[in-house]
Amino acid sequence: MNYRVLIIAFLLSFTGLFPKEKDFDSVIFNIVQQEQYYVIAAVFKSYYYAYDYVKDLQKRGYDNAEQLSLDENNRYKVSVNKFQTIKEAEIFINSNKNLKNLWIFDISNSNIVPTKVELNKIDNLNNDIDKNFESVSSNVRDISEQINDEVFDNDILQNDIVNSETNFHVIVASFKSFYNSFDYVKELKEKGYKKAIQLDSTDSDRYRVSINNFKTKQEAEKFISENNSFKNVSIVETKTKKSDQIDIEESLINNQINLISDTNNKDIDTQIDEFENQISELNNQNIDQNAVLIKDEVSEIIDQNQDISSINEDTIDSEKFINEDVNNDLGFDNEEFDEYSLVDESDIGPIEDYTFDQPQELFDSQDDYAPQIDEEGNINFKEEIVLNQTPNESIDTSDVEDELVISKDVKSGGNSNIFDAKRRYDEKSYVKAQNKYKDIVRAAGRESRQSYEYLANTYYNNSQYDKAVIWYNKLLVKFPNKVEEETLFKAALSFKSVGAYDISDDLMTKYLEKSNNLIIKNEFERNPNYLDSIYSNSNKHRIFRTNINTENSEFGPNFYGTDKVIYSSTTSSTGDEEYEWSGQKYLDLYVAELDSLERLINPKILEGNINTQYHESSATFTKDLKTVYFTRNNFIDGKLSFDRKKEVKLKIYRATTEDDGLTWNNIVELPFNSDEYSTAHPTLSNDGRRLYFASDMNGSYGYSDIWYVDIFEIDDEIEYGLPINLGPKVNTEFRESFPYLDDNNILYFSSDGKIGLGGFDVFKTQLNRRGFPGEAVNMAEPINSPFDDFGFVYNNSKKFGYISSNRSGFEGSKSDQVYKVKLNECDYVIEGIVKDKNTKELIPGAYVKLLNLKGEVLAETRADQEARYIFDKDFKCENSYFIEVSNGIGYDSVRTKITTSDFSDKLVEDFDLDWSKEGCLPNDLDCLLKLNPIYFDLDKSYITSKARVELSKVYVALTKYPQMKIRIESHTDSRASDKYNNDLSERRAKSTKGWLVNKGIMSDRIEIIGFGEKQLENYCEDNVDCDEAEHQLNRRSTFTIIN
């Protein structure tokens, strides 16, 4: 069984309530069961990843690629093609060279009937139907409370909800969630505890799990004493009554499930007729509801039962989650790739390498809840009203506030429920408000525009866009002309997050027609082909899972020195209370170490007294690691502070340490904070003189903007300038947050107001010398996804960083996890040796440059002592480059073009440099520059006017070749003693060097040596009679190139 079959069962359950028509137009089924062979290319756990992979295959020319329905193992197969015979499928596989690991799936052997329910053709009802839907809706809701991820295993279900006689139960855990308790029972049974069961919820709305039960208390106590595997075990005595009957609707639905499971034996029309006869006794009941509500009830049931963790935190040592490989504990499939290159840190496989567990099964590629698109590409929300509204409806409640919508058939207390839901919503207790509004729209049967809007917003505000879409869709269908502009924007963002880009764009167009928000309007109008632009810049990075993620929320990483990362988590929170906005624990700051492979290990809570029972997150450190700035609730000295609306804002605090972070002291809030607005997510500039942050303070363009303040140190006191807004090149009328500035002065931030792939997207902008931004650029896939992507930090020198995202789950912000980002460089290495072409001698220190085809230098290096150079980064795949080698004035430079696609992983390119001037050795500067000798007067060391002319030539050469170094060698004639001549030659060398240094040449580029009379140019030695002109030839300075 799967969810699709359940939907059919629910829809069929109500077919008997409608007039029977010959062509069955009220509900149209397309049941297919025939011999078909699907060629399967991949299997996914996520519907969205499967859907995206289908799109990718279609772009690559596989026009018949399709996504098959969810199977009994909760997986989605992606078929690249299908055939009527197995031989045709085999021929296709053998002829396909581009896709690996293809296999054949025979649909006729599946236990599941692939069923497509086409609701868009259901467009009329019998107007004679009465108005009494509540009882049926209520029964559906009752049944929904008993459904979970394994709902179709009826034997387990019936055994797990117990209403029986007196028993003494050994209780090992209790849960607020029915589904978590059900999963834990299943886990216990798999471990051998066959009597494990789930007890009814208590007055405190908790579901207890019994591992065993006994007739006497003594037997239960004996069991506990003999079993030490569980902590905090208790005994509960139960006295309950057996139920004598089952609701007819539940029985009929179960019967129908069995009918659909047995479709191999019966024709579908016969099944429908039998089912109609079974529920004919209900034909007198009346319906006053759009039948799409039935489908949405089921959709909501399914939504509530996705991604339920099977781990019970009450029975597992929390240290295990902190110090061991969390991925394995949480059941991650380490070899599974998705569209966003999500892999484990240890995985270095290619992007094409999709690997999966076992053959799985089928799904439609169309989202059931998406509005229909007409031939011109516009949304036609009217078509989504699949059953007609009652024409005689006498009261239009669309303009009535929730507080005033009181249906006469609402149960006692309905009015207070409406007020309570609104109160919870205004208090930002979105999880509680969500449950209240769901009860209202289900039970009341007369939903208002505000009820749909607020319910959708509760999901939106917790980043559960897939569920927000359902309720925004209901709102747009039922009240298409009364949706406020802000809601249109949120709906557009939500539809984009589930991949419905055409619908999202149409909603954005409608939003812009109503809105005066010029920044977003200009963004949208200037980027009509924004998806093409984003996709063209994709795949420059790879994303890896990290080992610090748990079943809770982790986000906001930042570098803590060179060997640690600090981040936020709700794991083992300091406080016990839950944050009412999200229903999660409060955040604390954690620290993880970086090992030699840049993997995060040994996560632990930040030492010291920064963490409190409320939120702490988003920390940034000064270079000396002595000061930290961090975000916290408005909580200081043990007290919470509130604004005028009784809300607790976020503030930025500073703390210092004197013992390398073992303790943090002097915790103070920054002076530009306020009780009336929030400041959060600080990041420091590279020099520590500017602090960037997010805030909704006065002057913001939208709900939160990126701001900065300058930091001054005056008389050993830290002072802060006035906050300055970064302006419309960064900020929009919606949300910008999580700034981060790298050492290249590139500002990264997240935004849902700028055009992106959905949810928060990461953008970057180059700041100028004054710190103001240029145009922001979307970082594209895989850094961005249709989900929330934020908190991006990056180390340019090491080419890796981290990002927070909820892309791997369906619980919104609770699915936030930290991922590693690594530059997707080509695995190419260019190396070689530089030699003298004539002598074949090695040339250490040769200057080697890597250039693009425009001649721009991308990288440069010098050959080492063995004359070897190497380039191993900064490549782009399938690109051409120039390599240029030179070695100063003595050699001609050489330039060679190379292409990265011409080699696999290494290119060896040796270079032979030729002498630049024939007849001159490469290091003979006198020869190369045609210098006349620099002569000195007898017994003198000063520079003569003739010598200055020749030294000017040397100065020009040194200026032209700034890497060149020379050696000055000075000499004397043979007259006077050896010691005197040695000193005189050194004075002449110093004098020659001094002239060049005075001209601006760096002293360390010139070596000097005095040879005295040891290297005479002629025969004028001691006791040899020579004239003065001959002695003059020996009083000289010469120049040699040493680099």
What kind of sheet is the major sheet?
Answer: 5 strands, mixed
The whole-angstrom Rg is 38 Å
Count of alpha and pi helical runs: 24
| N/C terminus separation | 78 Å
Uncertain residue segments: 1-33, 110-164, 241-416
Beta-strand percent range: 15-25%
Average pLDDT taken over every residue: 72
How do the strands line up in the largest sheet? 7-9-10-8-11
- Helix/strand/pairing class, anyone? alpha+beta
Structural notes for this entry:
- Among the domains are: 96 residues, 2-Layer Sandwich (Alpha-Beta Plaits); 144 residues, Serine Threonine Protein Phosphatase 5, Tetratricopeptide repeat, CATH 1.25.40.10; 200 residues, no CATH class; 85 residues, Immunoglobulins (Immunoglobulin-like); 117 residues, OmpA-like domain (60s Ribosomal Protein L30, Chain: A).
- A hairpin with a 2-residue loop joins strand 24 and strand 25.
- With 1043 residues, it is an alpha+beta fold.
- The longest helix has 21 residues.
- It is 26% helix and 25% strand.
- Helix 1 runs antiparallel to helix 10, helix 8 packs antiparallel against helix 9 and helix 15 packs antiparallel against helix 16.
- The protein contains 24 helices and 51 strands.
- The chain starts with a helix and ends with a strand.
- A five-stranded mixed beta sheet has the order 7-9-10-8-11.
